[in-house]
Amino acid sequence: MVRIDAVGVCGSDIHYYTEGRIGSQIVSFPEIIGHECSGTVAAVGRAAGSLGIGQRVAIDPLLACGECDQCLAGRPHTCRRQKFLGCPGQAAGTLAEYLVLPARCCYPVPMSMTAAQVAMVEPLAVALHSLRLAPLNAGAKIAILGAGPIGLSVLLACRATLKDFDSRIYVTDLIDDRIEAARRCGADWCGSPRHEDIRAAIGAQQPLGLDLVFECAGQQETLDQAAELLKPGGTLLIIGIPELDRVSFDPHLLRRHELEVKSVRRQNNCVAPAIDLIASGAVRVDPLVTHHFPLAETKNAFDLVASHGDGVIKAMIEMTPSD
Q1: Strand ranges of the sheet holding 230-238, from the earlier edge strand across to the other edge
Q2: Between the chain's N and C termini, which has fewer beta carbons within 10 Å?
Q3: Are 7 and 315 in contact (CB under 8 A)?
Q4: Would the pTM count as exceeding 0.85?
Q5: Which residues contact 104 (CB under 8 A, 6 or more apart)?
Q6: What is the CATH code for 125-263?
Q7: Could you read off the pLDDT tens digit of each residue along the chain, which spans 323 residues?
Q8: Is 13 left (phi over 0), alpha (psi -120 to 50) or beta?
Q9: How many CA atoms lie within 13 A of 223 on its CB side?
Q10: Exposed, middle or buried: residue 218 (CB in 10 Å: 0-12, 13-18, 19+)?
Q11: What is the dotted CATH code of the domain comprising 2-120+285-318?
């Protein structure tokens, strides 16, 4: 049993809050959502292994069966019988004071990490999984479309992974505060489609096209931009969750340039390396956590994130007093 210490408000939580659904996953009142969290072990059963009371932990919100073809193939994130915290009809979310979890979902963290840093392990793990799917090479030319928490996590992960290589990372967003955050997080160039033609601006610097584009906005416009920015043989990784049930691509552009399109599904065994990067200081997630709320003000936190107000990037709900 884990006492929940902090919960990050994720974009998928906002989909449930504002639209009541993500695709076929429909919420019905009452529903407990939330999945990015940190906690402290409050009680243990016989199968808890080395976990003990008082141990601070990061949570992998995926409850995989461990027995299906996907789990046995090393793909628990596409488990046939998976349950995910805060997912309608699957498992209760983390916006609660206590949660009972399998020990395998609880990863010990150093006492030096704050509750907010531990909650940020989950989005950073998603970013690391996306990088594992990407053909990263020295000198890679990369764009990240969407500089929300996931896009900025991808940027931080790219910078940590490519620190010894001469790579170039271009970041776009509609919100000026997020553009500034991307600059602080190490983007080589930032731009907003509100102020300039993104394709022309990046194309002027990279006339041969980009190697990789991480689409983190979940919009038809950014999917179109991504395909047009890539060089022949380039790779598009879709991380953003579209509000629409259908999106489209120009099949002739994809075919003629033989573009590779990959969808990123959560994270796959990347919690431990995400903890190591944050604990070591190799990745600094603190600048992404811009707002803190007590549990009683959860609605205010959700409204703020839904409206993109006050420069919010990641709103953190603190279930216990902050570190």
Answers
A1: 189-191, 168-172, 141-145, 210-215, 230-238, 260-263
A2: N
A3: no
A4: yes
A5: 60
A6: 3.40.50.720
A7: 999 999 999 999 999 999 999 888 999 888 999 999 999 999 999 989 999 999 999 999 999 999 999 999 999 999 999 999 999 999 999 999 999 999 999 999 999 999 999 999 999 999 999 999 998 888 899 999 999 999 999 999 999 988 867 899 999 999 999 999 999 999 999 999 999 999 999 999 999 999 999 999 999 999 999 999 999 999 999 999 888 889 999 999 999 999 999 999 999 999 999 999 999 999 999 999 999 999 999 999 999 999 999 999 999 999 875 44
A8: alpha
A9: 20
A10: buried
A11: 3.90.180.10
Spatial separation of the C-alpha atoms in residues 54 and 1, rounded to whole Å: 11
Tokens 């991480």 label which residue? Answer: 214
The alpha carbons of the chain give a radius of gyration, in whole angstroms, of 19
> Do residues 223 and 246 lie in contact, with contact meaning Cβ atoms separated by under 8 Å?
no
The domain ranges of the chain are 2-120+285-318, 125-263
Same fold for the domain at 2-120+285-318 and the one at 125-263?
Answer: no
Q: How far is CA 82 from CA 63, 112, 114, 201, 264, in A?
A: 6, 32, 29, 43, 16
In sequence order, which residues have a C-beta less than 8 Å from that of residue 72 and are 6 or more positions away? Answer: none
Comparing C-alpha atoms, which of 18, 93, 27, 82 is closest to residue 305?
Answer: 18
